[in-house]
């Protein structure tokens, strides 16, 4: 009995295995052959309040099947571009890094190994968190690469040096990144309200080469002026905390902060980055589906990532 149609199976979004975007699964990290490789990092032991982001990778993968475009890609009438068309899109999902409960350093090391395998294969790592501490091993994995400039979308600065002896939690990652000699600077966007970092953290961040803008400051400046502040022609690592978005559209996160970004504000900045330099790494963190019965947070995460990946690949070719 036939199991498909002429030209192959339809493999509609509600059918089959929930890999990211319904792209092929490659669990042998020695055989990654793609332009983009997606890695899950279901780690949430770095949280200071509400846990639950260990379910983030599964939630984002499931939501991403809504945007499984098949062979046609995704036509954007505003840009007059078809993004993610099958003939020029090579994306694989390489599964998750092993997470060991209560063992932060070992779990982080496993995440780092996954990102290093992607980089060794010459692919772009896209990492699904997990809490924001997973950015620490992601950045560690770039130690043998050319220098990078980090662009962060977040409500919180995440620049705590040490608190109660903790140096590798989700309040520390951008401080750990700034300490690396191969990180040439940071652009921290969306930072606002009661935050995870005290005044001295802001002073230290600026002293270590960070440019910090709130959502209100970004709206006053406009996207083009914000992009002009980011060094041109650099290799960008982009880290997106879902709480950078307003909780009205991203309630499923451990530390929601009102006054956040709308979807298109972030997409315009991401699109501009792909034209201003080279995006060499991405992580999206802090999706916790237990706090969002409607699943719109995971849908937002998947939509942001697929649109961003599509623009990265298109503007590389352009």
From TrEMBL:
<feature type="binding site">
    <location>
        <position position="156"/>
    </location>
    <ligand>
        <name>Mn(2+)</name>
    </ligand>
</feature>
<keyword id="KW-0378">Hydrolase</keyword>
<feature type="binding site">
    <location>
        <position position="243"/>
    </location>
    <ligand>
        <name>Mn(2+)</name>
    </ligand>
</feature>
<protein>
    <submittedName>
        <fullName>SpeB arginase/agmatinase/formimionoglutamate hydrolase SpeB</fullName>
    </submittedName>
</protein>
<dbReference type="Pfam" id="PF00491">
    <property type="entry name" value="Arginase"/>
</dbReference>
<dbReference type="GO" id="GO:0033389">
    <property type="term" value="P:putrescine biosynthetic process from arginine, via agmatine"/>
</dbReference>
<comment type="similarity">
    <text>Belongs to the arginase family. Agmatinase subfamily.</text>
</comment>
<feature type="binding site">
    <location>
        <position position="241"/>
    </location>
    <ligand>
        <name>Mn(2+)</name>
    </ligand>
</feature>
<dbReference type="GO" id="GO:0046872">
    <property type="term" value="F:metal ion binding"/>
</dbReference>
<dbReference type="InterPro" id="IPR006035">
    <property type="entry name" value="Ureohydrolase"/>
</dbReference>
<keyword id="KW-0464">Manganese</keyword>
<dbReference type="InterPro" id="IPR023696">
    <property type="entry name" value="Ureohydrolase_dom_sf"/>
</dbReference>
<dbReference type="InterPro" id="IPR005925">
    <property type="entry name" value="Agmatinase-rel"/>
</dbReference>
<dbReference type="GO" id="GO:0008783">
    <property type="term" value="F:agmatinase activity"/>
</dbReference>
<dbReference type="InterPro" id="IPR020855">
    <property type="entry name" value="Ureohydrolase_Mn_BS"/>
</dbReference>
<feature type="binding site">
    <location>
        <position position="132"/>
    </location>
    <ligand>
        <name>Mn(2+)</name>
    </ligand>
</feature>
<feature type="binding site">
    <location>
        <position position="154"/>
    </location>
    <ligand>
        <name>Mn(2+)</name>
    </ligand>
</feature>
<keyword id="KW-0479">Metal-binding</keyword>
<feature type="binding site">
    <location>
        <position position="158"/>
    </location>
    <ligand>
        <name>Mn(2+)</name>
    </ligand>
</feature>
